[in-house]
Amino acid sequence: MPKVSELFTLEYGHSLELNRLDQATGTEAINFVGRAARNNGVTAKVNRVHNLAPAPAGTVSVALGGQGGAGIAFLQPSPYYCGRDVMILTPKTHMSEREILWWVTCISANRYRFGFGRQANRTLKDIMLPNPSETPGWVQDVDFVKSFSESLNQLKKLSQMPPVLAPSSIAGGRSKVCDVFDVSYGTSLELNRLVKNSRGINFVARTAKNNGVTAKVDIPQGVEPITSECLSVAVSGSVLETFVQREPFITGFHIMVLRPREPMSTEELMFYAACMRANQSRYSYGRQANRTLKDLLIPSRESVPGWVFGTFIRVSDKLIERACS
Fold first, then answer.
1. Packing angle, helices 266-277 and 311-324, rounded to 10
2. How confident is the model at residue 217 (pLDDT cuts 50, 70, 90)?
3. Domain ranges of the chain
4. Tens-place pLDDT, residues 80-124
5. Collapsing DSSP states into helix, strand and coil, what is residue 320?
6. Nearest partner of 86 among 3, 18, 6, judged by Cα
7. Cα distance between the two ends of the chain
């Protein structure tokens, strides 16, 4: 079992402070990678810093500290600058993108070691990784790549053309959640009283992972499954973790279901799921969203930007190109 330092060269990032940089949005803007656990660690785009070269694309960023982000690794597909407490890992030998993603997954699986405020500064290099000879076959399996491409081609069929009057960015119109969606509680069942079945129906709980699905179960007698094409929202636990549900499902306690009042594409639903999560900061310190969810303000239908539509096509094409390269 090799250590991280045997597969990668480790060096500290730029240790820049975002509030001292000029944020930018143009094509020449550089990603700024902080200690965030989402969005590939990218928290902003900034102008190039004079006499400071960005970290190269194809390297791995690892957050060394920060609440919720310590120990999380990301493969960076574009040049980037780093905030404080971010380590840059460069492969010592040539690795395909899929191989690097495998090691990124293995490194991130050790994040539990850095709970309770512990940092990864000294110990990251010594984390033990799986033996390279035991790397799963799908990392290099051509048939897997082919199947992956076929799945993405199916995903592309869910894309839709933007409305003629769609704005180029999120417009200023806002509506309450209850004006855009019908808000209702889920089925409020207890998983330990259900029969698990790998071929059963999805059970959606308050987790922040796996699209909210924690198990597959048999449908209890007398319970009507919730139909698909809606959003599930955790109103306690992982508050405001929101997911698009494209299959029938049942839920645990404290899950609300948001069903569009008017027909929406899957891309629009994913946009609104992101809008819901953007309100998570309102529910720190144990606050729940049971009563206030329906009154949260989100972009109105006419404020949904044009770039939301066609996203599946653009992203799928890029992934297929990378997988086959």
1. 90
2. very high
3. 4-130, 174-301
4. 999 999 999 999 999 988 899 999 999 999 988 887 778 888 899
5. helix
6. 18
7. 29
User: Are 179 and 262 spatial neighbours (Cβ–Cβ below 8 Å)?
Assistant: no
Contact 209, 252 (CB under 8 A): no
Return the DSSP state at 56: P
Q: Phi first, then psi: what are they for 19, rounded to 5°?
A: -70, -5
CATH topology of domain 4-130: Adenine-n6-DNA-methyltransferase TaqI; Chain A, domain 2 (3.90.220)
- CB count within 10 Å of CB 53 equals 10
CATH of domain 174-301: 3.90.220.20
> Cβ–Cβ contacts within 10 Å for residue 77, how many?
13
172: burial class by Cβ within 10 Å (0-12, 13-18, 19+)?
exposed
Q: Which residues contact 111 (CB under 8 A, 6 or more apart)?
A: 70, 71, 72
pTM of the model: 0.67
DSSP string, 97-114: HHHHHHHHHHHHTTGGGG
3-state secondary structure of 36: coil
**Residue 68 scores a pLDDT above 80:** no
The separation between CA 309 and the C-alpha centre of its own chain, rounded to angstroms, equals 19
Do residues 266 and 159 make contact, with C-beta atoms less than 8 angstroms apart?
no
**Who wins on pLDDT, 235 or 138?**
235
In the numeric block, the tokens 């409020």 are attached to 188
Six token digits for residue 30: 């550089």
